[in-house]
Amino acid sequence: MEVLKIATAGSVDDGKSTLIGRLLYDTHSLTDDKIEAIRDSSRKKGYDYLDFSLATDGLVAEREQGITIDVAHIYFSTAERSYIIADTPGHVEYTRNMVTGASTSQVAIILIDARKGVIEQTYRHFFINNLLRIKDVIVAVNKMDLVGYDQTVFEDIKQNFERLNANSTYAEQNVSYIPISALKGDNVVAKSNEMPWYQGETILQHLEGIESIDVNEEGEVRFSVQTVIRPKTDEFHDFRGFAGKIKGGNLKVGDQVTVLPSMTTSKIESIYFYDKRYKEAEAGSSVTITLEDEINIARGDMLVKSNELPRVEKDLTATVCWMDSKQLRPGTRYVVQHNTNRVLSKIAEVGSVIATDFSGKKASDGTLGLNEIGEVKIKLSKPIFSDSYIANKSNGSFVLIDEHSNTTAGVGFIN
Length: 415
Prior knowledge:
17% helix; 7 helices; alpha+beta; Elongation Factor Tu (Ef-tu), domain 3; Rossmann fold
């Protein structure tokens, strides 16, 4: 069944967890014991309603403080498709968590409290979705019940967000506006009787109608070699296959491919998925490929169509979201993990810091701090085979790994 990945964003008390809980409840995705636990907890808190946020807040600190701290992934299905929701925190100090949660998502839901309207954090939430090039953004104006389901309130918020949307650098981005009450269930799964002035879709109806395009399907074909398969059995004595995941397009038997970095060329002889052979494999498929010619290929090499060559470069300029408490400084060394390729690198320059409210760039002191986003120049010990993030998401991104602690220190998007 087709899977749609969704990221949520919102400020404190905007109702992200409640919305997700309501989606789970109204699609009958919660078990009876989970519903009973929510009912008991709501009763103990003195509520005369079910507190659906309890369905998603997994950490004790989240339940006690009523905020989202870490990224939680929630799964549910309808008759149409399956969904994975990344419930991401909205606080500025958890920007790195939001980037992580949204990086693989195809749709974003930005919640706005109808009483507060577009606020500073809304700018940052939209900026990150813009940076990550999330194609479909749903602006859910929540808590309409607390403003008397007033159409004027909704229209004012929509106009304010449209002014924010004018700053978008992603022309293909689709922004939709839906007035909801997550607590009451208005326009979440079922149409609201309280807002006859709204003739659009509910949240679920909108999600059901979105065309699912995985990040691996965008751009030109890129096949990073994960491992070389040599069975060394009598039946497959001369077999030499290259296993990996196809990104950016389809590959078929007979396609002429170029191997990087050697720049040697050959044609695809066969495509295997486990023990079955196929004439063609789609983007997102994990397969084993054999070539007509004997070519020296190792893990970290890349196969591409010969007429779709990527950039081969040892110097990168990238937009980096910094995730480490230790500042990013020029001269420091990190491992760049780009697909299956791991390359030693040195930070050449930390340029400007990018303001997440669309106000532009500001000069940095030469460093990048925790949760900051900035322009960074990196020198690599050997070339990688990359595209810009705009052209190919999967081949235009990388992570920076601290070579001493082995922790992920930052994520980069190649310019």
